[in-house]
Design a protein that fits this description.
By secondary structure, this protein is mainly α. It has eight helices and no strands.
């Protein structure tokens, strides 16, 4: 929204260049969203970005340790170029740069979640305690519930083992398990909205759930 409103030129002869700059910048942002998704999922095939960034940029991107961070850097350089050409007011440049800084902070937070697994000793202790509790439970409740002991043990064990499994499943929410975040759907929706704001009409289809899950 701000790229389309605050980036402009007083020279009518530069109107086409400014419009092209706006489109290219928004396409870089779309590429960033998709690259960020692939980076969190440790995917390295960036051909999906063809059409959003030049082929030369994609080849450089494939060699980067942190591809989305490289795209943020390139967007910052584009803003500096637009500022030097007089398309961005002095007061507006820090505002636009601040958004890129916020993206960097958000990306760092997601990377910490993805790269900080639960300690193995904690998981091992939790599994062992749940197993011992479920094994010992019938001996402690037989005198109280009598013949209903198997049913009670089944229900309680199901609850505890289910919570234990959920803990394992949500350890990394960026993978491709059914319980993980639908990053593919999220990034596709962002692409659709941004391209629509550019006035495009030939838009990709939104991803729809398959059996209540979006595994992309």
């Amino acid at each position: 929204r701000q790229i389309q409103t605050v980036v402009r030129s007083e020279n009518p002869s530069e109107a086409a260049e400014v419009q092209q700059f706006q489109r290219d910048f928004v396409y870089f942002m779309i590429a960033y969203v998709h690259a960020f998704r692939m980076f969190l999922r440790k995917q390295s095939d960036f051909h999906e970005l063809d059409g959003f960034i030049p082929e030369g940029e994609r080849k450089i991107l494939e060699k980067q340790v942190n591809p989305p961070l490289y795209l943020l850097k390139r967007m910052s350089e584009k803003l500096q170029t637009a500022y030097q050409r007089g398309w961005i007011h002095t007061f507006h440049l820090p505002m636009l740069e601040q958004h890129l800084t916020e993206f960097t902070a958000i990306q760092g937070g997601c990377e910490r979640i993805a790269n900080t697994p639960i300690p193995h000793s904690y998981l091992l202790m939790l599994h062992q305690l749940v197993g011992i509790y479920c094994f010992a439970l019938p001996f402690g409740i037989t005198d109280t519930v009598g013949l209903a002991t198997p049913l009670v043990v089944l229900l309680v064990s199901y609850a505890f083992l289910g919570l234990d499994a959920i803990g394992d499943a949500i350890e990394n929410p960026f993978e491709l398990d059914p319980e993980d975040l639908p990053l593919g759907s999220i990034s596709r929706n962002i692409e659709i909205v941004l391209r629509q704001q550019l006035g495009e009409t030939h838009l990709p289809e939104a991803l729809v759930p398959n059996a209540y899950y979006i595994l992309d």
